[in-house]
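> example.struct
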């Protein structure tokens, strides 16, 4: 989920439509909160948003099968829950850092941010590897991680402005990604999000971080590891 920047949103058609109650699927951009709750920016004029206004129940499919010769051997997870509108500035900041192009319309009156309150998830990790997951096992316990959330913007700014070479090493040496000019767009207890144009990458941490100090220690460790990598 953290590695994906988009998802398929499934809602139920509202009662004023001829196919009321029928499933309706659409493509949406997605970001994740620090606890891994999905965040969306959608137009109130769109059918999926109007469906959610009538019935907030929704499902998001995160597809991790891209590039595989046999897609059904790859992982994907469907997250069920209720989509609730959010005005939390931190949700807005995380989403727009993940999707900078969305800033041009995020302020329009007909757009709003939503957070999916997960009730359970269905993971297919490959043939025969299928599990229903309770929200307590899907979401990350972020109690004690408020200092990291408060420092996130300054950490990202510092890394991109003063340690661009380190971010580039994360992408090229640790993640095997091509191209130059990778930027850090987010950091949470489990890892960091990177972006170059339309490409995204996920940098996992060896251990959870909870504040600026522990984040710095892990980022320093990773850049040392990257410099030693062939």
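> example.seq
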């Amino acid at each position: 989920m953290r590695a994906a920047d988009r998802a398929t949103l499934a809602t139920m058609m509202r009662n004023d439509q001829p196919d009321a109650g029928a499933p309706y699927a659409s493509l949406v951009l997605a970001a994740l909160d620090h606890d891994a709750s999905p965040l969306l920016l959608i137009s109130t004029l769109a059918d999926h948003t109007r469906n959610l206004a009538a019935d907030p129940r929704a499902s998001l499919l995160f597809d991790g099968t891209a590039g595989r010769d046999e897609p059904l051997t790859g992982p994907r997870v469907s997250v069920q829950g209720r989509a609730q509108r959010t005005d939390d500035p931190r949700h807005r900041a995380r989403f727009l850092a993940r999707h900078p192009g969305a800033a041009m319309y995020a302020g329009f009156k007909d757009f709003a941010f939503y957070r999916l309150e997960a009730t359970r998830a269905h993971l297919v990790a490959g043939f025969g590897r299928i599990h229903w997951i309770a929200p307590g096992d899907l979401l990350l316990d972020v109690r004690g991680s408020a200092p990291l959330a408060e420092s996130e913007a300054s950490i990202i700014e510092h890394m991109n402005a003063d340690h661009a070479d380190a971010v580039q090493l994360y992408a090229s040496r640790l993640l095997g990604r091509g191209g130059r000019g990778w930027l850090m767009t987010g950091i949470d207890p489990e890892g960091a999000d990177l972006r170059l144009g339309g490409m995204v990458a996920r940098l996992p941490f060896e251990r959870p971080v909870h504040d600026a100090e522990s984040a710095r220690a892990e980022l320093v460790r990773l850049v040392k590891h990257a410099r030693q990598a062939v």
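> remarks
The chain has seven helices and eleven strands.
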